[in-house]
Input
Amino acid sequence: MSVGKAAVKVLHLGRISYGSALKIQQLHIKQHLDSSSISPNTLLLCEHEPVYTIGIRQAPYPPEEERRLKELGADFFRTNRGGLITFHGPGQLVCYPVLNLGCFKKSVRWYVCELERTVIKMCSKFGINASTSPDTGVWVGNNKICAIGIHCGRYITSHGLALNCNTDMSWFDNIVPCGIVGKGVTSLSRELGRDISTEEAIPKLLEAFTEQFNCTLTYNGSFS
Amino acid sequence: MAMCAALRCVSTNFSAALPLLSRPAHIWTCQNSLRPNILRTLYTSSRLSGALKFTDKHEWVRVEGGVGTVGISNFAQEALGDVVYCGLPEVGTKLEQMEEFGVLESVKAASELYSPLTGEVTEINTDLADNPGLVNKACHEDGWLVKMTIEKPAELDELMDEVAYEKFIKSLDS
Output
């Protein structure tokens, strides 16, 4: 049992392919599982080239669907996270917390709720009134501004959240985002009527994360 | 991960599982021959049966006639939230104790399941395909996940009984 706040290391990966980011997450998960006393909690921050990803519920996305989306010029990945289909691409801030929930609270329901609250807090720092809904994620009215989908094994989390900053939203027209019919998507730029890059969003997201998770962030310039 | 490749959605497994539906009927016939008050104790008592053993990952196993029924505890289902999908292994899958055998999805989170024992999967709960919420509503009864053989009965001694498990979850930092 640790006294005081948990420490979380921030790693900026920059523009990186989805596949490469998956490998880096796996490395960090392995670090958690291998180490006996040190829990190297890490927050990976990155942006991806256009890619559609799905979660463990694969039935709605057969090979024909995969082909269709690839023909549009995006990559396609089947992952081990929760949640249905979503899009990642330039202008979207993707955050992968690889945490040991033993340092926080051993409940995925709690963890997902805290991720939602973190993003809501971040949005409020921009003056945007965001909220949760019965569908996991962060919403501004009927439009989702941030998607969430995670995996948890032996209390180690992976995957995470995807916040639209100045994403080209037309990529979402090709899918039913997160399988939710009748609702839309939005971004920080759309809500504020000015261009907001991932660089501008990062400090506010990290601020909200430390506040919500009651942790301290450490920075390491090099890639592990 | 190898485990992901081995998983099959329960609904796509349904045609393979159909012959298994006769098995629960056979078990029910046997149980009908038990005295009613034993059935009451087994199924209506809010106290957990002493036959439940628990892992520190919050799975339970109940042994009846050499077959282990596996599920997750009330603590686990509360920590997950509403289960919307159960990814269970195929019948015939051989499992080692503590090996990942499946995944439950809730609130967009996929959480791994760990086998309490070494053995072979003999049956999966096909009700969960259409009704995954049974894992929340009836985690010790109708929300069971898989049944398996018990290759190493000594492993049961390593697991916690109900009393020890209650102590264990109280000790967890919340």
Q: What stands out?
A: Confidence is low (pLDDT under 50) at residues 1-34, 40-50 of chain B. Residues 19 and 139 of chain B are 25 Å apart (CA to CA).
